[in-house]
Design goal:
Layout lengths: L2 H27 L27 E7 L5 H9 L1 H6 L3 E7 L2 H10 L4 E4 L1 H10 L5 E10 L1 E5 L14 E4 L5 H12 L14 E4 L5 H7 L4 E5 L2 H7 L3 E5 L10 E8 H6 L1 H20 L1 H16 L5 H9 L1 E3 L5 H14 L14 H9 L14
Parallel strand pairs: 1-2, 1-3, 6-7, 6-8
Antiparallel strand pairs: 3-10, 4-10, 4-11, 5-8, 5-9
Amino acid sequence: MPANRSAGATLLRRGLAVVAALPLLALAACGYGSKADDVPAGQRIAAGAEKVDGLDSVKIGYFGNLTHATALVGVQRGFFQKELGATAARYQVFNAGPSEIEALNSGSIDIGWIGPSPAINGYTRAEGKNLRIIGGSASGGVKLVVDPEKIKSLKDVKGKRIATPQLGNTQDVAFLNWVAEQGWTVDAESGKGDVSVVRTDNKVTPDAYRAGSVDGAWVPEPTASKLVAEGAKVLLDESDLWPDRKFVITNIIVSQKFLTEHPKAVEAVLKASVETNKWINANPDEAKAAANKQLGIDSGKELPAEVLDPAWKSIRITDDPLASTLGTEAGHAVEAGLLENPELAGIYDLTLLNKVLKDEGANTVDDAGLGVK
């Protein structure tokens, strides 16, 4: 065969192969493959499902922490996708509150699970124009864990190096408040004083502890239990400092713009959250396994039992945003000098959550006077 004809035949075969592959590529781009099992359970769209509010997708953010168990389990078990019908649930995992607030402000996410301090800071910096807290998720799950060779009692914390996740984050504010209650002084910005506050990402805190760079940490789960697995001991559970041992550690926030334009989609996510929480509390062992599986997917590694089990036990899953404790936490940030007196009126809009709770025959929740008027 002449060279030019051979080359032409080769090009033709390649062209036919590309054309034949196009339908397969299109299916893959839509999240479909040759088998239904190729699509994770949490992302499967039921046959015949309809879009909510005509939306192609709802973008949901959360952290890879056990204190965000509602999101972890809701993703893994498909609760969010079920309620959103043919509207695809899209997820983004964050490591810090400020970056999630930035994503909400820019429209990169519509709804997110987040701690109280980032929600307060985000709301006040935007002069109350960017977000609303629309539901609760978790209480507890924060501990002061220390090197038992260096710190044997609470008074021994003075003069030591204690890690917190980030300047001004929820645990940082709580620790600074506790330090002040002991009568000790620390400059909030620098972390220097009677106690050295070392702001360290939760991912590297166990390494810092192992290396002796910090003597302890005031951190959320599962970081606290990871440190215990390294030989640390729990010196204080933050729950012991609060009435009824309840305080908000994770809330649900939404963009005000998204809430106004797509209330049905927001209600669908809240319904999924309530259903997820109900399932978690009724099936704690299965829920723990589901949360851990999702952590493995998000981070590349599941937690070992010696970390997972104690961490899970210390977290209380709840639909109640525990609004009165958010106001208290804001006061702690003011006292630490990290926040000017915030105007928090309107930070909550629990209308849709209470609608869902009523429909479920459950008790409604209160916004502690900080709701939309």
